[in-house]
Amino acid sequence: MPTKVSRSAGFLASSLTPSTAITPDSDSFLEKRSASSSYSVEEVPLDALPNWRIGDRLSHSSGRFFAVEGLSIRTDFGPKPEWCQPIIIQPEIGILGIIVKRIHGVHHFLMQAKMEPGNSELVQYAATVQATPSNYQRVHGGRPTPYLEYFREHAGRRIVFDQLLSEHASWYLHKRNRNMIVEIPEDEHIAVADDFAWLTLGQLRHQLERGNRVNMNARTVLSGISYAAQDDADSYGDIRDPFRLQVVESHAAGRSNDEVSAAMTWLIDQKSKFSLDVRRISLGEMDEWASGTDSIRHRENRYFRIVGLSVSATSREVGAWSQPMLEPTSGNVVALICQRRAGVLQFLVQAMIQPGLTDRLELAPTVQLTPGTYSGPEDLPPLAEYLDAPQSWIRLKAVQSEDGGRFLHADTTHLVVNVPEEHTIDAPDNYRWMTLGSLNRLIRSGHYVNVEARSLIACLL
After folding, report:
1. Residue intervals in the chain for CATH 3.90.79.40
2. pLDDT tens-digit map of 169-180
3. Is CATH 3.90.550.10 what the domain over 258-276+330-440 is classified as, yes or no?
């Protein structure tokens, strides 16, 4: 049986290692792999997609991969009590897995340079394995998924992280993926394929700071890492930046069972306060949406649209394919406000209802803003004024892509705002201050922290 551990020893040292002899330059590796293949991405009408059919729903002729249907929503959370929208239906549970190994005493992560047609920067670092059952069962007739066996056969390997977690719940209905980190022994040899490289967490942190270099599926896996292991405590003195030191100390705080149980109880209280009713409907039943052979779009061109893509990529398991994609309106922002409180850095998160969540409500960033959802400045979500915080308060600002396998040019600005201790923040009742330690415990417990918050947490490596 595999050995499960609650804390990942040694990851702090990896996050403080900015380069490695194994892959000296993580920038040039990604650029070289991108240049080694050819890619073509072209928008086409939905009715021009081979093997896809549009009617009451948009679906693949095999019945696999995913479909797009209509959804009717009623809720007493937020400013809008009811609406209809398209939503992606993908009941398959995919594997998002990263192999980790100590090399010369430092944890290295086996990352893949992967092309996704929806990425603004087409090739980004991805998890070792990123595949749905339709992919790894080769319904598309393509090549086998490399390294899949490490996540399906666990004997003799250490399971660092293994949890089913939600995906973008405004665009997916009840979508979950299995997020995994599997550590192999130092003396176990593993052949490294051309599109793969061993990177330290320090190198990944550099890529995250640049933006649009580490894809969403890798970020959600990385959010499960803890930096609270006891054998890392001696490394705290190696951290010269005061804010980074506070981040690591926040990882070590608030991890007790009592504190995490109190957060869970609060979250259950929030779930009991709000109602959510969702009903799957046909595409033609959505009055505010136009469903045609060309695309599915809102009649006022708000929110997002569903379009077709024709794709070719010499580096993928399948050389050419066609598929629908969801293209959101531009300008999406997610932000975490943090503040040193009672001697420790804490982060302000909100309990948020989203129509596609399996259990109605999860913890979300302080601000989760989709401009197309709001009619004007008076309609913005609570605390949105902190998006214009003084530059001296900004600790992170980078644009990151969402899942480029389903979403087209879905770029989201990730923002972390460190508010001075003397500044008073008035937050609504569904907001709560939490340490990164408590949030990490909840991520490792299942459906408590949404993918937008997890993505931001990963950027705080």
Report:
1. 3-37+91-240, 258-276+330-440
2. 999 999 999 999
3. no
